[in-house]
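With this grant's support, we have settled on a layout for protein records. An illustrative entry appears below exactly as we store it:
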Amino acid sequence: MKQVIIVAKSDNNVIGSGGELPWSLPADLAFFRQQIEGCYLLSGRRSYESEQGKEIFLGKDFVLITHQKGYRAKGGKIAHSIEAGIAMAQKDGAQRLCILGGAEIYRQTINTVDELVVTEVHATLEGDAFFPAIDSTIWQEAQREDHQKDADNPYDYSFVWYQRRDGVNG
């Protein structure tokens, strides 16, 4: 099972503010939806409960990571550790596991996954949730698409794919 982190982050690694994205980029939302198509999703509870989460998880196979005993997620499974969540996805026959955050989930998985798919929002923004630094001894950029801001997207942004360097195991 291929494990992929999918994230949008600002130049200063902000991924959230008050439980929501600190920007609106329709192009990134479309890109994100394309990237998670056919994926089994793994996410933290707060990401699931966010405004975006209401739509993202609808009709998808997913597992949520939470420490809350007795928590229920409509249409999804619950695990109390990332390892247990990954095992559930494998048992369900997932071919591609897309890890959607939040910050702590990213921190615990960034050096064990197979690929990173990152939207770089070219701005320095305020926030309270951060993506960990991408270690260039582990990750190498494989592809990049740069885009200019426009009437709908108020920031320059890039879609960047990172592959694990040869010989570096998670």
